[in-house]
Design goal:
By secondary structure, this protein is of the alpha/beta class. It contains six helices and six strands; from the N terminus they run βαβααβαβαββα.
Amino acid sequence: MKVLLVFAHPEEHSFNAALRDIAVEELKAQGHEVQVSDLYAMHWKAEIDRFDFPTIAPDSRLLVSQASGAAFAANELTDDVKAEQEKLLWADFLILQFPLWWWSMPAILKGWVDRVYAYGFAYGVGPHNETHWGDRFGEGTFAGKRAMLIVTTGGWPSHYSSRGVNGPIEDLLFPINRGILFYPGYDVLPPFLVYRVQKLDDKGFETVAEDLRERMRTAETTTPIPYRTQNGGDYTIPYLELRPGLGTPSEGGFAIHLRN
């Protein structure tokens, strides 16, 4: 496989950086090609603004989706964004790695998504008709490719359980797994999660390291999260509501978008 790992941590001597190196080493040992986008080392521009669309008239209103779509179609996106898009098209397998900060990804990684996922490139593609409402949620630019998250947190597993104070980790990562990865077509693998990272001793680190190596060794065969596809018949068109009879009356929220 060709693998792109997008890394978002500001400290090169961090636990996250050590995990990144382990993942890259194991992937290469398995014969895969690997590229790393180290966003902090790249001084990645996180905010999306007028500087991303230099051909827009100064006195015109900035509508980001339309501006990104026009710039993509005209090959006028900035060079840093084009380079990341080329990496995504090259890669068969995308890994997003980050520490969980304030219940989400670091701003620099969200900014990478905002800028790189241009309209017409990662979304806004495909026909809209009576049975098909655009190529998204299981279809799209990255259909047939795989993706997963590597996520660290200082909290305990119980803090992120179904009754935990922080909410279920599956719910916290749902907007990333389904909204950022599955939406443009990726088959999304279960995330690799590491809890209580500040409390890990050497033995604990070696256990985590070996678990990560195993996840990298099985990346091509791991069963993806069974999200419902948008155009597979589970949702009404064009309202995109789950059809009656699917799920149970007590289900709601994120879990209802998983196939049983």
